[in-house]
Amino acid sequence: MNNFTDLDMLYDYEKDVTAAAAGYMTFATRAADSDLRTRYMQLATEAGKVHEKVSSLIEKTGGIA
Fold first, then answer.
1. Residue 28 pLDDT > 70
2. pTM for the complete prediction?
């Protein structure tokens, strides 16, 4: 059985939030409806904020963000 460290979990979460931000941004560029485009942009922005926090935690834990 694998033993994952906190740093491993943070790296995994960083990967997921990066993919989410990229996906939301892609959806925003493809949306024809301006309200929907705005919502996707908001989601991408929030995912970017989460990425900043996770990157900070990775650096505090001794990893490279």
1. yes
2. 0.86
Where do the structural domains in the chain lie, given as residue ranges?
A: 33-65
Kindly report the CA angle at 53 between 2 and 21, in degrees rounded to 5? 85
At how many degrees (to 10) do helices 6-30 and 34-60 cross? 160
Q: Write out the two tokens for 10.
A: 């943070």
Q: What sign does the dihedral 8-12-15-18 (CA atoms) show?
A: negative
Look-up of token digits 């994952």: 4
Output the six-digit token pair for 55.
């990157």
Report the C-alpha gap between 39 and 36 in whole angstroms.
Answer: 5
Cα separation, 2 vs 57, in Å, equals 22
Helix and strand totals (H; E) in the chain: 2, 0
